[in-house]
């Protein structure tokens, strides 16, 4: 199943220069993760830019070929089997390969049944490559990118209308998925069917100072509330394009435990 490659949420160049640079001689001798880093450094140019179609294709083609061993992983490593469940909540671990103002490369390790709750990626383009395991993904986009279609619940929570983009199970090896600032399922939820390793490349990265903080959401069935909305069928809760609708409200996750661990793959530095 492919996710989000064909729908972009912003501008960008044609990416031709980047493609030619990465396909030229000399680069192929470097380890795959270092080639990936060099491509990201050329593609991600800071806040307000979205990779062009050619750049998206380049990064996807490189990530599609990425194997666990390219980032120093084995399927039998301890963090795929240990639970660390002193509170009964699966412990999610992550390791940062590289980070700068323009992009971040990070791997998440989810034990079986671990959940990363529904959350957003404001103004960001995110490439996700499932390296190991099996993962259920459910993702949404706002029906209206501007927060106009909203209402309040009986408890006073602010609700905003969203359309479901993805709802399915992915098993490694599978295609890279891409989400954009306003399309491709910018808000997503992960649940590990089997122990997983997910390589994420986020550009630009989260930054509270720059207005890109991570917000978590809870999905509420569309039928529980109604709104005069020409884009939605009031009875079925499905929009004109067949997307199932839900209301999202901000929440604070209480069943989420994360810990950072040391990266053990090929080193990456600005001197590459």
List keywords for this structure.
13% helix, cysteine dioxygenase activity, mainly beta, iron, PCO/ADO, 11 strands, RmlC-like_jellyroll, metal-binding, 272 residues, globular, 11-stranded mixed sheet, Jelly Rolls
Topology:
Layout: H1 16-23, H2 32-43, H3 53-64, H4 78-81, E1 91-99, E2 104-110, E3 115-119, E4 125-142, E5 150-152, E6 158-171, E7 177-179, E8 187-203, E9 216-221, E10 245-251, E11 257-260
Parallel strand pairs: 1-11
Antiparallel strand pairs: 1-2, 2-8, 3-8, 4-6, 4-7, 4-8, 5-6, 6-10, 9-10
Pfam families: PCO_ADO
Cofactor: Fe(2+)
Biased composition (Gly residues): 1-18
The span between the termini is 34 Å
Instruction: Indicate the mean pLDDT.
Output: 84
Main sheet attributes: strand count, strand direction, barrel closure: 11 strands, mixed
Per DSSP E runs of 2 or more residues, the count of β-strands stands at 11
The percent range for helix content is 10-25%
Global geometry: globular
